[in-house]
Each structure stands twice: as C-alpha cells, then as structure tokens.
Specification:
The chain has 216 residues and is mostly beta strands. It has one domain (2-215): Beta Barrel (Porin). The chain contains two helices and 15 strands. The chain has helices spanning 2-22, 190-193, and strands spanning 33-43, 47-50, 56-59, 62-72, 77-83, 86-95, 98-108, 111-117, 123-140, 147-150, 153-165, 170-180, 182-189, 195-202, 206-215. The strands form two sheets. Strands 1-4-5-8-9-11-12-15 form an eight-stranded antiparallel beta barrel. It is elongated and about 65 Å long. It starts with a helix and ends with a strand. InterPro entries: OMP/PagP_B-barrel, OMPW. Pfam families: OmpW. Residues 1-21 form the signal peptide.
Length: 216
C-alpha cells in the first residue's frame, strides 16, 4: 500500500511538472501562487480491530492552525499542498482489560490535492482530491503501556470548499476535507498485561477549516 501511494504521489508531481511546462496561463488576476491560513477542527471518525483483548479506539478532536500553498496552472486548475500538525489523545475502550489510556500522539499529515475551481464571480467554489502521508511522532504512551508504536500511513483525501473574494488579492475561505487513513499500532503492555498487542486503527478524520487567503 505504501509503495502504491508513493508511486501515485510521484506520478502526480510529474504530471504537475508536465502541465507547468505546457500551460503558462494564470488565474484571473494574473497570480499563480495562493496562500491560505486556516483554523481547523480535526475530528477523527475512528475505529479499531485490537488483537487479543478486543475493544475499540477513541481519538480526541484537535483544534490547530493550517497553512496551505496552491499553484494555479490556469484559472480553474490548481495543485494544493496542505500543512498542519495536531496532537490527539488516544484510548482503547471496551477491551477485556477495560478502558486503557494510551497517552497522546502527534500527527503530521502533509496532503497534496488537485483542485478544480468554478470561476465566474466573487464566490469561487472548488472540489479536490489527492494523497495524504501521515507521520506519527511525539508519542506519549500513557500510564499503562510501556511503549506505543504507530506505522507511517499513506491514504487518500477528498476536499470541497469555497473562496469569497474581498478584492483582487484577499479572500475568505471555508474548507472541508475527508482523509482516509489508517495505521498499524503496536502496544507494548508487558508490565501491566504481560503482552504486546497489535491493532489496526482507522482514523479517517473530517477536517473543517475557516481562514483567510492571499494571491501573489
């Protein structure tokens, strides 16, 4: 899965370079680059298959800033790189050993989407789809586990939103994304449960953002 995802991301980047070479048009005010700063709510739609002890996963909602950078091939088509990081509390719930506090983990999920913008006025809706790479870091295993390890994940992203132009340069933005991502987690609970437990965790967050942007 990871090799397939990486290959698709490379292919998307190669396609971007080809389009840049073939099409030097810009968006409607002559700008090729667009930057947005959003405040986002990251709400996991989580589930888990936990070995041996059963149960499910509970992952907290996070509120964080997000930066995105867009390059416009023409006034309709663009490629956007979305950058943010968020900390989530994690718990295994309803297991044979009860609810287990698994501390917290930071997620770094850079996401690359291709977008189509419906132009024709100050209200500019868009749709997008792309790939996501999620890196897990800063793990705090909590009071029960000796260690928790999360595998890097490659998944897919869908996106929809709109820009509302305040003038030729500045605009407001509302954006909704759905990421389809999962990870294999390994929980070393030797001290408490005399076991190491594996889990297949689907995170699949909804990401809802509001912000401001500028065209350069």
């Amino acid at each position: 899965m990871k090799k397939i995802g990486i290959s698709l991301m490379v292919a998307l980047l190669c396609s971007m370079n080809l389009v840049i070479a073939q099409d030097q048009q810009t968006n409607d005010n002559g700008s090729k680059w667009q930057f947005r700063l959003r405040g986002i709510v990251v709400t996991p739609d989580e589930s888990a298959d936990i070995e041996t002890i059963g149960g499910d996963a509970s992952i907290s909602t996070a509120f964080v800033p997000e930066l995105d950078i867009s390059y416009f091939f023409n006034e309709n088509w663009s490629l956007e790189l979305i950058l943010a990081t968020a900390k989530h509390d994690v718990e295994a719930v309803g297991t044979a050993a009860g609810d287990i506090d698994l501390g917290h983990v930071w997620l770094l999920p850079p996401t690359l989407t291709g977008q189509y913008h419906f132009t024709g006025g100050d209200f500019v809706p868009y749709l997008g789809a792309g790939l996501n790479l999620t890196i897990f870091y800063g793990v705090d295993e909590g009071p029960v586990a000796d260690d928790v390890d999360y595998d890097t994940s490659i998944g897919y992203a869908l996106q929809g939103g709109f820009d509302y132009m305040l003038n030729d340069k500045w605009f407001l933005n509302i954006d909704v994304k759905k990421l389809f991502l999962s990870t294999d987690a390994t929980i070393d609970a030797t001290s408490a449960l005399d076991a190491t437990v594996g889990a297949d965790v689907d995170i699949n967050p909804w990401i809802i953002g509001f912000g401001v942007g500028v065209k350069l």
